[in-house]
Design a protein that fits this description.
It is built from 1 helix and 8 strands, in the order αββββββββ. By secondary structure, it is an alpha+beta fold. It has a single domain, classed as minor pseudopilin epsh domain (minor pseudopilin epsh fold), CATH 3.55.40. The strands form 2 sheets. Strands 3-2-1-5 form a 4-stranded antiparallel sheet, with helices on one face.
């Protein structure tokens, strides 16, 4: 015997899809717990990145000043920026940034003035460092002699510190009398 199939015209009832309020609250709670766990380590990561980036820039500028002193057979300074950012400042707090510039003599404490022969005595300017960082030097300037040695032959240091809520991280740039630059 043969049975007839009936066709039903119209729509079959659809199954409803979605997320219940309970499921949504569970997901939000898990996300909150994960955020609370990762936030301190992420903050530490950001602070360490700031410290590393600033020390890399400082190291690069120190090396550039030394190489330019040798290449140009003249004195080069890397010094604290004054408040206006136009020349070397005083003091050992380098938070306003630093300058890399030409110096006309071995006793100069400021960048050379622009002339027709040298219209740009300031080679590089670094802006103020992040407020979470401190940079303290053993002096307001570091001088590289034409032979690449440092100043009067005495060692100089620049200490970069990152203060965060949990810990304090430090990086030190040491410039030996020979002009050798090491980062610790």
């Amino acid at each position: 015997m043969q049975t007839k199939r009936r066709r039903v015209f119209g729509r079959a009832p659809e199954r409803q899809t979605g997320v219940t309020m309970t499921e949504l609250m569970i997901v939000v709670a898990i996300a909150g717990i994960l955020a609370a766990i990762t936030a301190p380590s992420f903050s530490s990561f950001i602070n360490n990145t700031r410290l590393s980036t600033t020390m890399t820039q400082l190291s690069s500028d120190l090396n550039r000043a030394r190489v330019d002193a040798i290449k140009r057979n003249s004195w080069m300074l890397i010094c604290v920026r004054n408040a206006a950012g136009t020349n070397c400042g005083t003091g050992t707090d380098w938070k306003n940034g630093w300058l890399v510039c030409h110096a006309s003599t071995s006793t100069a404490t400021a960048c050379d003035v622009a002339t027709v022969a040298d219209p740009n005595p300031i080679i590089n300017q670094h802006q103020a460092i992040n407020t979470k960082l401190t940079l303290i030097g053993s002096a307001a300037l570091i001088r590289f002699n034409p032979n690449g040695t440092q100043g009067t032959g005495a060692a100089a240091t620049l200490t970069l510190c990152c203060k965060s809520n949990s810990a304090s991280t430090t990086s030190i740039a040491s410039i030996a009398g020979t002009g050798n630059i090491s980062i610790q």
